[in-house]
Amino acid sequence: MTVIVTTEANREDSRWTFWLITAGISTTFGAAVPTGYNIGVINAPANFIKSWCNETIYETYGTVFTEGNLETFWSAVVSIFLIGGVIGSLGGAWVADKMGRKRSFLLCGFLLVVGGLCFQFCKAIGSVELLMIGRIVVGLAAGLTTSTVPMYLTELAPLELRGALGVFCSMGVTGGVVVGQVMSLEEVFGTDDHWQFALSFYVILVVTFFVPYHWLPESPKYLFVIRRRHDEAVNELKRVAGRKVRDEYVREQIDAMRRECTPENEEESVGDGERREEKAKERSIISVLKDRTLLLPLVLVCALQGGQQLSGINAVFFYSVSIFESVGLSSTDAKFANLGAGCLNLFVAFFSPILMAMFNRRFLALLSCSMCAIFLFCLTFIVYFIDDVEWFSYASIVAILLYILFYQIGLGPIPYFIGSELFEVGPRPAAMALGSLASWGCNFIVAMLFTTLQNAWGAFVFLPFTVTCVALTLLLKLYLPETRGKRISQIVPLVAKGFSSKPLVP
Hints:
Helices cover 74% and strands 0% of the residues. By secondary structure, the chain is mainly alpha-helical.
């Protein structure tokens, strides 16, 4: 295995360039922010939309919903977005390889615009079906976004900036949730007359930030390793790296991509040209699942993405409104306080690129998971005794805010891009798609079960999330290799032997 030493000259070439920044901003505001927007926008105007659905169904079909039927129908409207996310994630691998990383981004934007148009006109033409179509279409776009955009950005980024650029998608989703919450306030668009504008407002972002799409670079790694268009890959590499890039740096990048075509760490890379060719080409989800050398990194990616949802972040935001009300805030003030907690989440997210550049992934992930487990356990204890101890109401707020803080320094951003650092270009789309599938699937499970478990278990509803964070901490401590500042060719051998791997061996 060749050891790559990061020299001072390498760091000089690992700089923010015009096209790197443009790609980061365009994908973040054109796809990631709208994804988060559609998560955060639906809650505040829910009563108005449910009322409209009830009236429209009666006018169209002559059917009168009971309160229970209406709640069930509304659950379907909300959850169909998550189902779309699951389907979009599964399709992410095929789309990323067949259409390319850049065109995958274009497809995300197209689906988002179609969904926004459905939202805008569903009320005007009196169609509940159009509302549901819009929800599943933006869900498809969201699944594609989380499985392809982080991969696109990390493949564009030089080694030193891989983590900093990889968290842009996470930042966008986090910011989009807050923007969606703001736009759906009654003081903005969250009213009986204007809720359709709240649902479709994000289309302005999509259209605006897709303006530079035509000039955005395609992933050089995709062109070189998957499509074998070497000259085009070199041209794109030089364009992304900027005018001041050194020839030595370009040669190093080409050598690194060539190693992914013929991995040094694979036994079959010597004397078996046919298998080398297969390794370099795109890999189906089935072939990745059957490959024993990819078992451990696949478990890590799926555990991190699924654990991100099963850590209870959405449940904490859901429950925080009632906790804020318990300290004497009115219902309206509690919603604004909850929005403030979302803003804290976003504020910490803005520091993610700096954290990824300064600290190791293992350290941040372990710190985040372990501290989330501690504060979730504290929240369980505090909420259980909240009526018995006067100051526990305030302690619960502190526990929520600290949980959000530590979640966002590791468990929030790292799962989005860690697959791009654990997998070579060939199996990467399939691995990212499976990770995204785990994320949206676990999100769906939490959405479906949380209210029921909350009613049955009360304060103990946070214990499963606590156990998830503890289990994730143990898994990462034993098997997550450090990926910061390392080439893929250095990382792959560390996790190629399944659970017999020794990823902490330098």
